[in-house]
Amino acid sequence: MNEFGQFTLIALGSNQNSIWGDVTTTIKKAMHVITSFAESDVISSHLYQTPAFPKEAGPDFVNAVIGLYTNASSEKILSKLHAIEAEARRERKHRWGQRTLDLDLIAVGNSVFPDLTTYAAWRDLSISEQRQRAPDQLILPHPRLQDRAFVLVPLADVAPDWVHPVLGESVTALLRKCPAEDLAAITRLDAPDHGPP
Description:
By secondary structure, the chain is α+β, with helices and mostly antiparallel strands.
């Protein structure tokens, strides 16, 4: 933690037009809104086009990651992210379905929340269980981040040296473990523009 609070990582994704516009415009707008609660400058990734996960979940996504410092609690940050999703008319009809906006709190400093046992239980769920179950509380760090190239690639733009507090590996090291086919399917788009869309 520094004078501006804890370093916080937020992943953004969209594969459905929102009231703000197409998916790229939606991500840029969300990035602009998120900067409003940072206590210092925001670090933003490039925008990336990535295949939907799982494959049948719809059209390609645009993904990005933001890093910021904030003194807000994890629960307060999550509440703000849910409010931004609601503003973009996010609907939670199907697990891993199409979405106008998906904002995931990836990490807050070195926090493991609510505890290591609960984190590990969610991290170790099989894919079939992941399809059927979602946590009813915040889990930090995000239990799937180390498995998802579409998170790690933009995360490496923002915080390549951030070390996973449970796995003890940097983002760069985790990215090296990603399957080559997953990385090859990701296309970098233009860098984000932080002005209002």
